[in-house]
C-alpha cells in the first residue's frame, strides 16, 4: 500500500507524522552536513525508535548525510563517504527504517565520468545492505551521476553488479527532475525504463524554473511546477508501487496540506 509522509525531526517522528496526517516519515540521523557517525536522537535510542515505529505502523525512511559522494575521484572524499554511507545504512536498519536515501554524487569537470560510475560500482560492492539503499536524482551539475537519464542509466549499470542489486532502489525527486530539465509528465515512465523501479518519490514543487539546475523546494502550488505535472508523477509512481515523502517547507500545517493534496490526487 502506498504510504505518504513528510520529512520531520528525528526526536519524535511518530507524533510529527500524526500532526501531518501521514503514515510515512523521513528523518535525518544527525547533522546532514557533518561526517559524524549517524545516530538516532530518539529517547531510548535505535531499538526504542524501531519499536515505536512498528507499534505506530509508520513507514520510516532515513536520508543519508548530504556530504556523501561515493563517486568522487578524491580519496579524501570518496573513502570517508563509503564509511559514512555504511554507518547510515546500519543505523537506519537498527532504527527500523524501510530504506536509506542517498544522493547520486558527482565528479569534477577534469574527471572522466566513467570513473565516477565505476566508483559507485566499487562502493556498493563493499556495502552491507540490511535495508534498501535508494539513490536519488539530483537537480544540477553537468558532471552529476544522477541528473540526466543517460547518466542514471550508466549509474544503474554500475550498481546492478551488486550481488543483492534488488536491495538498491531509486528515489525520484520531482523538484530535482524539473530543475534538471526532465519532463515530469513522462519522467516516471522513462526512469522505469532505465532502472526498472521507482521506490520512493520526494514530492516537491520547485522555486527554480525548468532546467534551472536549482535545488530549491516549494510547497505544492507555490512553485513553478504545473500542479497537473505533479499529479501525473503521483499517479504514475503510485501505480509503480512507490511511497511518497514531501520535503516541502513550513511546519505541520503546510506539510499536512501537501500530504493531503497527494493523497487526494493518488486516490482520485
Structure description:
- It is a single chain.
- The chain has 268 residues and is α/β, with parallel strands linked by helices.
- It has a single domain, classed as Divalent-metal-dependent TIM barrel enzymes (TIM Barrel, Alpha-Beta Barrel), CATH 3.20.20.
- 41% of the residues lie in helices and 15% in strands.
- The strands form two sheets. It has an eight-stranded parallel β-barrel, surrounded by four helices.
- α5 links the parallel β5 and β6.
- The chain starts with a strand and ends with a helix.
Figure out the total of helices. Answer: 9
The helical percent reads 40-55%
In the CATH hierarchy, the architecture is Alpha-Beta Barrel
Instruction: Name the strands of the widest sheet in spatial order.
Output: 1-2-3-4-5-6-7-10
Q: What is the count of distinct domains? A: 1
| CATH class call | Alpha Beta
Looking at CATH, which topology would you report? TIM Barrel
> Major sheet: size, sense and barrel closure?
8 strands, parallel, barrel
Query: Structural class from helices and strands?
Result: alpha/beta
- Average the pLDDT over all residues and give the rounded result: 96
Low-confidence segments, given as residue ranges, are: none
Shape: globular
Could you give the order of the helices and strands? EHEHEHEHEHEHHEEEHEH
- Relevant CATH superfamily: Divalent-metal-dependent TIM barrel enzymes
Per DSSP E runs of 2 or more residues, the count of β-strands stands at 10
Strand content: 5-15%
Q: N- to C-terminal separation? A: 15 Å
Rg computed from alpha carbons, rounded to a whole number of angstroms = 17 Å
Amino acid at each position: 500500500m502506498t504510504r505518504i509522509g513528510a520529512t520531520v525531526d528525528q526526536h519524535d517522528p511518530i507524533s510529527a507524522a500524526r500532526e501531518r496526517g501521514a503514515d510515512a516519515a523521513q528523518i535525518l540521523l544527525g547533522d546532514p552536513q557533518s561526517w559524524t557517525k549517524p545516530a538516532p536522537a530518539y529517547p531510548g535510542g535505535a531499538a526504542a525508535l524501531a519499536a515505536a515505529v512498528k507499534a505506530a505502523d509508520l513507514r520510516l525512511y532515513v536520508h543519508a548525510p548530504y556530504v556523501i559522494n561515493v563517486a568522487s575521484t578524491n580519496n579524501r572524499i570518496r573513502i570517508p563517504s563509503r564509511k559514512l554511507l555504511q554507518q547510515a545504512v546500519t543505523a537506519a536498519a537498527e532504527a527500523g527504517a524501510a530504506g536509506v536515501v542517498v544522493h547520486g554524487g558527482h565528479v569534477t569537470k577534469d574527471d572522466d565520468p566513467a570513473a565516477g560510475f565505476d566508483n559507485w560500482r566499487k562502493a556498493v560492492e563493499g556495502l552491507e545492505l540490511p535495508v534498501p539503499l535508494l539513490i536519488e536524482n539530483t537537480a544540477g551539475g553537468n558532471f552529476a551521476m544522477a541528473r540526466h537519464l543517460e547518466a542514471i542509466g550508466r549509474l544503474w549499470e554500475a550498481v546492478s553488479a551488486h550481488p543483492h542489486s534488488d536491495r538498491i532502489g531509486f528515489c525520484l525527486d520531482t523538484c530535482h527532475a524539473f530543475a534538471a530539465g526532465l519532463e515530469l509528465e513522462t519522467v516516471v515512465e522513462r526512469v522505469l525504463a532505465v532502472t526498472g523501479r521507482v521506490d520512493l518519490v520526494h514530492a516537491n514543487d520547485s522555486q527554480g524554473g525548468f532546467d534551472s539546475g536549482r535545488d530549491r523546494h516549494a510547497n505544492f502550488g507555490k512553485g513553478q511546477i504545473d500542479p497537473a505535472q505533479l499529479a501525473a508523477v503521483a499517479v504514475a509512481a503510485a501505480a509503480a508501487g512507490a511511497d511518497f515523502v514531501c520535503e516541502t517547507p513550513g511546519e505541520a500545517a503546510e506539510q499536512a496540506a501537501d500530504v493531503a493534496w497527494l493523497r487526494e490526487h493518488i486516490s482520485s
